[in-house]
Amino acid sequence: MALSGMIRGADPSTPPLFSRLPGRLFGPLASQNRERYWSILCRLYENRFGPEAPLPPSKGYTFREIVADIEGELNDQDIWADDGDDPETPVGARANMIMTRLVEAGWLKVDRRALSRTVFMRPVVSHFLSQLVYFAERGPVFVSGKINVIEASLKEVARGDKLGDVLGEVAQQSRDLLEHIRNTGNIIRELMESLDLEMTTAQYVKSFFENYIEQVFIGDYREMRTKEHPLSRRQQILRMVESIDESNAIRSGLVNWYAQHRASGDSQRAERLYEKDMQRLRDLMRIDEYIARLDDEIRRANRKAFVYLDHRLRSVNFLDIKIRLAIERVMAATNVPWDPFGAGDMVSAVKLAEPRKAAIKHNASALRSVTLSPRDIAMSRILQRARAARATSPHKLAAFILARLERADRATLDSTELDLKSATDIRAYQALCTASMALASEHRRIQLAAREMTRGFLVTPTGDADQPHRFITGRPFRLTIKQRRTEQK
Fold first, then answer.
1. Closest CA to 170 of 264, 237, 249
2. Distance between CA atoms of 172 and 149, rounded to whole angstroms?
3. Cα 331 to chain center, whole Å?
4. Which of 361, 365, 165, 160 is nearest to 258 (CA)?
5. Mean pLDDT per segment of 10 residues, for the chain of length 489 residues?
6. 175, 213, 302, 346: least CB-packed within 10 angstroms?
7. Which among 174, 167, 140, 148 has a CA at the least distance from the CA of 231?
8. Structural contact between residues 208 and 191, judged by C-beta atoms closer than 8 angstroms
9. What radius of gyration do the chain's Cα atoms show?
10. Half-sphere exposure of 42 (CA within 13 A, CB side)
11. What are the DSSP calls for 190-229, one per residue?
């Protein structure tokens, strides 16, 4: 108990899995007969507790009905591995023991009413089992269907209907899509490593096409680069995401929904949840990077398979048959006018291989050690500090702007009013000037990159002509903090 308390206190952000699921739930699936236990759970899920099963009685199934289902599955299975039970035990007794273990592990729950016993599956366990079945049955994913669902859902949110549940669901689908594309490359790499080079050519081809082409391949991979594929509309989807975030009415309505339904009235937590979902949708911008990496893995896998098959086809040579036919013809010939063997002795000292000569290894010379002088060390540290002062990031820009706005006690500030006192301030001013010009451009990718650097505030250009400053010249702009829900109230 003390150890579990220490583990829970180490990282409060860890999702509490076993506070929702029984602690011994994975016991049957970790035993020697895990595949047979899984088969029994799948049958119970299909016939009794799944969404396609008949409507269960209001009081639950009787104990005998569930045991009968387990007996039917045991009759269809092979002999179980030695799990501490006598293999000669009758099927009914084995079914009761399996039932007892499933109840102890938490998969099933028995409710006693008077002299009868009813069995049911708790909702959280049923939902977890449905996720496992979905994971086991999941086939190739069609990206077009995912993109169409995301686009249609965002259109509903953009109409201002305050559909916070739709936004959370579409953000989760966007994250699942990127994760699947990213993991597909790893699956292909592991699959190619699992193919045994000692297989016959027929076995290699069968394993390659059945596992690689049919199971882990994306269903519409061939059409993903075409104009007709919904993935070509990802820029429109990203524009809808930005329009939702920039609309104060829609944004405040969504944050209010998050606060009421997901954050228990905590406005700050609602803001974090909203920003988290919006960032998941903005990550669709990285889908090209994931697809390019997937293309590299697929080309590498195809090249490896083609090289192997080409080697196998070229190396097929009937050398054994040729040697046997040559021996038979020489033995069958009575008068051989020619000598089938070369001149000289077949075995002689001259034809023996020479002994290998050991290569002389020379000892490596010692590396020279360089001792820096105090002046060189000081110059290196000065260069590091100068490099750090010139570096910019979203956090540095936010700190720079907040400090100036708090000093001026205003929500907006023009570029001409910024006071620059150090190289870090000048570099931040230059980055903000660059971001304002990028936001004024017509290229969507440049605008998105600029928004990544200016999170939490808006940079609006106020003129096209350069204006002189104390240290640097650039186009003027205005800084404005994005309004939050609490500020709007």
1. 237
2. 12
3. 68
4. 165
5. 40 70 86 85 86 78 86 73 60 85 88 80 86 74 76 82 78 82 74 67 66 56 62 80 85 86 85 88 82 79 77 65 78 68 67 77 70 86 86 85 84 84 86 86 80 82 81 85 56
6. 346
7. 148
8. no
9. 35
10. 15
11. HHHHHS-TTS-HHHHHHHIIIIIITTSS-TTGGGTTSTTS
DSSP-assigned states of every residue in 62-75: EHHHHHHHHHHHHH
- Alpha-carbon gap, residue 456 to 474, rounded angstroms: 23
Rounded to 5°, the CA angle 85-86-91 comes to: 90
CA triplet 320, 326, 332: central angle to 5 degrees? Answer: 135
Which residue stretches of 391-443 are H helix?
394-408, 423-439
CA distance linking residue 204 with residue 222, whole number of Å: 24
Question: How many other C-beta atoms are found inside a 10 Å radius of the C-beta of residue 243?
Answer: 12
Q: Which amino acid is at 321?
A: I
* Contacts of the segment 433-442: beta carbons below 8 A, 24+ positions apart: 433/472, 433/474, 433/475, 433/477, 435/459, 436/460, 436/461, 436/475, 436/477, 437/461, 437/475
Task: With residue 418 as reference, give the H or E element that holds it.
Answer: none
**Which has the closest alpha carbon to 453: 404, 397, 413, 377?**
397
CA angle, 28 then 32 then 35, to 5°:
70
Q: Which helix (H) or strand (E) holds 113?
A: strand 109-113
Q: From start to end of 317-426, where are the E strands?
A: 412-414
The DSSP element (H or E) to which 116 belongs, if any, is strand 116-120
Tokens 């002509």 correspond to: 465
pLDDT at 310: 74
Residue 276, number of CB atoms within 10 A of its CB: 13
**Contacts with 82 (C-beta within 8 Å, 6 or more apart), sequence order:** 32
Q: Per DSSP, what are the bridge partners of residue 257?
A: none
Token pair 């070229």 is found at 314
List pLDDT tens digits, range 234-275. 788 888 888 888 888 888 888 888 888 888 888 888 888 888
Predicted confidence (pLDDT) per residue in 37-66, tens digit:
888 888 888 888 888 778 777 777 888 888
The residues pairing with 467 across neighbouring beta strands, listed in sequence order, are 474
**Max CA separation in the chain (angstroms):** 116
The SS3 of residue 451 is helix
Q: Are 160 and 166 a contacting pair, CB within 8 Å? A: no
